[in-house]
Design goal:
Shape: globular
Radius of gyration: 15 Å
Strand order of the largest sheet: 1-4-5
Helix content: under 10%
Order of helices and strands: EEEEEH
Number of strands: 5
Strand content: 5-15%
Length: 132
């Protein structure tokens, strides 16, 4: 994608975030089409639905247009531990993310949900201050 199409600016757009296999199995190799992945019940004892196999290789942030388009998706290390969220295994709840400008910043679980969505879009024309 050309940089010009990231109208929010590279320093205001999350490109990559940490993820952990503590939420569900994960792989760097690929996904079997049509497969599903359940949450790791040894860590998350309540029942939950399976997620698509995309959770094996990717995480996402921002609005979940497939499952819940009206809901702001989970911040990093959300207590519900959804299999497709960003997750860091640090002392503080949250994870490190890589922004388009090459900077890496720690994003807390307690980030304002609207700010998290704004940082997760490339062309929402949101203005973000540095205090999040």
């Amino acid at each position: 994608m050309p940089v010009a199409r990231i109208s929010d600016g590279l320093s205001n757009t999350v490109f990559i975030g940490e993820r952990s296999s503590c939420l569900s199995n994960a792989t760097w190799v690929g996904v079997v089409p049509g497969a599903v992945t359940p949450p790791r019940l040894d860590l998350r004892p309540w029942p939950s639905e399976n997620n698509g196999a995309g959770c094996l290789v990717s995480a996402h942030s921002g609005p979940d247009t497939h499952d819940h388009p009206q809901v702001i998706i989970h911040a990093p290390n959300d207590p519900f531990g959804h299999t497709d969220e960003m997750w860091g295994e640090h002392g503080a709840p949250g994870c490190n993310v890589l922004f388009g400008d090459g900077s890496v910043r720690f994003i807390s679980t307690f980030i304002d949900p609207n700010v998290w969505v704004a940082l997760s879009t490339r062309d929402g024309y949101e203005v973000i201050n540095g205090d999040y």
